[in-house]
C-alpha cells in the first residue's frame, strides 16, 4: 500500500466540500424554494453545479495527492480462503 | 409490426451482437471471465462504471420522480456524486486488495479480510438474494419501455424474452469483456437519446425551457422546493443511504468493474471525471417537469419520459430512445447476472477444478436470468417486496466493508455478522411491520442499530480476548 492511502491526508478534505454542499441543499433558503436561476429550478442548477464541482474537487485532490506517483500494475494473484 | 417495434428489436439484437464481439479467447477460468486478467484500460473501466449510473431508473423512474416530486428528483444527482467521492477514496484500496489477494467477488473480500469463509458465504447469499429482484426490475423495466414506445403489450413481453435471452448469450460468450463492449454502445445511444430529448421536449413547449419553468413556478411552486412525501428528510436520508451503498460497493455487481481495472490510477482518473457524465441525469429531470404541464396528472409516473418522447418526436427517433433505454436495462442486467452467478459459483458451490467452476457459473447465469424473467412475466409482484429491501438491505454491509478496508481489519467476524443481521432484521421490520417512519429512509434508520450492535459486540469480543490473554500470561508466569 502506498503511503498516501495508509492514512487520510489533509488534501482529501477537499472531497468533502461537494458532499456538504449536496447535503445542505434543502437547508439553504436561497437554493431551496420556488426560485429560478437562468430560467431553471435553483435546486436543479445547484445540484448540476455541484456535480461538476465534484469533478473539480476530486481533480484537486488528485493533483495534490498523486503528483509523480509511479503507475501500479496487476500481477498474478493467490487464492483466497472461501 | 410498426416501425418503432422493428427498430427497437433490431437495436436489442445489435446490443447483444456488439457484446459478443468483446470476446477474445475462450475463458478457461472464472477469474478471466469475471475480471479479465485485471487489465482493463481507463476507457473500458470508464464505460463499465458509467454503465452503473444509467439504468432503467434513469429513463422510467427519474422523470417520474420529477413529475410527482419536483426537484426532489435531484437526489439522484446528489447521491451519485457522493458515491463517486467515496469510490475515489475506497476503490483503489479495493483494487489493491483484490490484486494482492485474488478477489473476484465481494464475498471473497469478506471471507479474506475477516478470515471467515462462513461470513463470505453469508455475504454471497445476501448479495445473490437481494440482487435477484434488482435483475427482475431491469427486465420488467425493459418490457415496459418497449410497450410504451410501441403501444404493444405483446411487443413488450416479446422484447423481455428476447433481451434476456440475448443478454445471457453475450454474457456467457464474452464475460466482462462483452459487458464492456456493450457498455460502449449503450453510452453512445444514451448520449444521442438524451440530446434528442433535451432538444425535442422543450421545442414542443411554447416559449421553450424558460417558459416551461415560469409556468411551473406559477402553477406548481411547491414542486420547486421540498414538500410532502418528498421533503427535506427524504432528500437527505435517501441521498445519504444511496451514496453510502454505492460508494462502499455494497452491491456485488459493482465489484468486477473495479477489480478488472489495470491500475488504481486508471480508476482514480475515471472517478475524477465520472460526475461530469452524470450531469446528463438532469435531462430526465427536466423531461419530468415538462410532463407536469403537458400530461394528465393521472399519468403513470413511469410512463412520463417515453410518453413525452412519443408526443414530441418522429417514430424513428422514439425508437432510438427506446433502444437506448433498452440498453440501459440490458447492460446493468448483464452486470447483475454476472454478480449473482459469480457469488454462487465462486463462494457457495463446491468445485473440483476451475473448468467445472466456470461451467457451474454459466449454469447459474442461465438459472438466475430465467428465474428473474419467469417471475417478471408471471408474478411481477412476488419479488417486489424483496426489492424494497434491496438497497437498504445491502447497505447494511457498509460498516463491515469500511472496517475491513482499514490496514488492519477493525472488526471481528461475530460483530460484523451480528451487525449485518441486526440491520437487515430492523429494515425488514420497518418495511413490513407497518411502522410509521415518515419520510425517513428505512435503510438509514436500520444502519443505527447495526452500528450499535457491531460496536458493542466488538467491545465485548475485545474484552474477552484481552481477558483470555491475561489469563494465559498469568498461567505462563506461574509455570515459569
UniProtKB/TrEMBL annotation, chain A:
It comes from the Bacteria. The keyword Transmembrane helix applies. Keywords: Membrane, Transmembrane, Transmembrane helix. The chain crosses the membrane at residues 12-31, 43-61. This is DUF3311 domain-containing protein. The lineage of its organism: Bacteria, Bacillati, Actinomycetota, Actinomycetes, Kitasatosporales.
TrEMBL record, chain B:
The keyword Transmembrane helix applies. The chain crosses the membrane at residues 56-89, 118-137, 157-176, 188-213, 233-255, 276-296, 316-340, 360-377, 383-403, 410-430, 442-461. Signal peptide: none annotated. It comes from the Bacteria. Keywords: Membrane, Transmembrane, Transmembrane helix, Transport. GO terms for molecular function: transmembrane transporter activity. It is a multi-pass membrane protein. GO terms for cellular component: plasma membrane. It is found in: Membrane. Its main location: membrane. The keyword Membrane applies. Belongs to the sodium:solute symporter (SSF) (TC 2.A.21) family. This is Sodium:solute symporter. It comes from Streptomyces finlayi. The lineage of its organism: Bacteria, Bacillati, Actinomycetota, Actinomycetes, Kitasatosporales.
Amino acid at each position: 500500500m502506498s503511503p498516501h492511502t495508509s492514512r487520510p491526508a489533509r488534501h482529501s478534505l477537499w472531497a468533502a466540500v461537494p458532499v456538504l454542499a449536496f447535503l445542505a441543499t434543502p437547508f439553504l433558503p436561497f437554493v431551496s424554494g420556488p426560485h429560478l436561476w437562468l430560467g431553471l429550478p435553483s435546486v436543479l442548477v445547484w445540484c448540476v453545479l455541484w456535480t461538476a464541482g465534484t469533478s473539480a474537487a476530486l481533480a484537486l485532490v488528485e493533483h495534490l495527492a498523486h503528483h509523480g506517483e509511479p503507475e501500479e500494475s496487476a500481477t498474478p494473484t493467490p487464492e483466497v480462503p472461501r | 409490426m410498426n416501425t418503432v417495434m422493428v427498430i427497437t428489436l433490431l437495436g436489442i439484437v445489435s446490443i447483444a451482437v456488439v457484446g459478443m464481439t468483446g470476446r477474445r479467447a475462450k475463458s478457461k477460468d472464472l477469474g478471466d471471465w469475471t475480471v479479465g486478467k485485471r487489465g482493463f484500460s481507463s476507457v473500458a473501466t470508464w464505460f463499465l462504471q458509467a454503465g452503473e449510473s444509467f439504468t432503467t431508473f434513469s429513463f422510467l423512474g427519474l422523470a417520474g420522480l420529477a413529475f410527482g416530486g419536483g426537484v426532489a428528483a435531484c437526489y439522484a444527482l446528489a447521491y451519485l456524486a457522493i458515491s463517486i467521492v467515496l469510490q475515489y477514496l475506497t476503490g483503489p484500496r479495493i483494487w489493491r486488495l483484490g490484486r494482492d489477494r485474488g478477489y473476484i467477488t465481494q464475498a471473497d473480500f469478506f471471507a479474506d479480510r475477516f478470515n471467515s469463509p462462513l461470513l463470505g458465504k453469508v455475504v454471497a447469499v445476501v448479495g445473490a438474494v437481494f440482487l435477484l429482484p434488482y435483475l427482475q426490475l431491469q427486465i420488467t423495466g425493459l418490457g415496459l419501455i418497449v410497450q410504451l414506445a410501441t403501444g404493444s403489450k405483446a411487443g413488450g413481453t416479446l422484447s423481455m424474452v428476447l433481451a434476456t435471452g440475448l443478454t445471457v448469450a453475450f454474457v456467457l460468450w464474452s464475460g466482462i469483456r462483452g459487458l464492456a463492449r456493450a457498455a460502449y454502445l449503450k453510452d453512445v445511444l444514451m448520449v444521442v437519446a438524451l440530446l434528442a430529448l433535451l432538444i425535442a421536449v422543450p421545442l414542443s413547449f411554447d416559449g421553450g425551457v424558460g417558459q416551461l419553468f415560469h409556468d411551473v413556478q406559477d402553477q406548481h411552486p411547491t414542486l420547486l422546493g421540498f414538500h410532502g412525501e418528498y421533503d427535506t428528510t427524504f432528500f437527505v436520508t435517501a441521498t445519504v443511504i444511496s451514496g453510502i451503498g454505492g460508494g462502499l460497493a455494497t452491491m456485488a455487481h459493482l465489484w468486477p468493474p473495479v477489480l478488472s481495472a489495470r491500475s488504481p490510477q486508471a480508476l482514480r482518473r475515471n472517478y475524477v471525471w465520472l460526475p461530469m457524465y452524470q450531469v446528463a441525469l438532469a435531462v430526465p429531470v427536466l423531461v419530468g417537469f415538462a410532463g407536469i404541464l403537458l400530461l394528465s396528472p393521472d399519468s403513470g409516473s413511469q410512463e412520463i419520459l417515453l410518453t413525452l418522447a412519443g408526443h414530441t418526436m418522429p417514430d424513428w427517433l422514439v425508437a432510438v430512445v427506446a433502444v437506448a433505454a433498452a440498453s440501459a436495462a440490458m447492460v446493468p442486467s448483464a452486470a447483475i447476472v454476472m454478480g449473482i452467478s459469480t457469488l454462487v459459483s465462486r463462494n457457495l458451490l463446491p468445485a473440483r477444478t476451475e473448468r467445472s467452476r466456470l461451467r457451474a457459473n454459466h449454469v447459474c447465469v442461465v438459472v438466475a436470468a430465467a428465474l428473474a424473467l419467469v417471475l417478471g412475466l408471471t408474478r411481477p409482484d412476488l419479488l417486489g417486496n424483496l426489492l424494497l429491501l434491496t438497497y437498504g438491505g445491502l447497505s447494511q454491509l457498509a460498516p463491515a466493508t469500511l472496517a475491513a478496508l482499514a490496514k488492519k481489519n477493525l472488526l471481528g467476524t461475530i460483530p460484523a455478522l451480528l451487525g449485518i443481521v441486526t440491520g437487515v432484521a430492523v429494515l425488514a421490520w420497518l418495511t413490513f411491520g407497518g411502522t410509521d417512519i415518515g419520510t425517513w429512509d428505512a435503510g438509514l434508520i436500520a444502519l443505527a442499530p447495526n452500528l450499535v450492535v457491531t460496536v458493542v459486540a466488538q467491545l465485548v469480543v475485545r474484552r474477552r480476548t484481552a481477558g483470555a490473554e491475561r489469563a494465559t500470561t498469568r498461567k505462563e508466569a506461574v509455570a515459569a
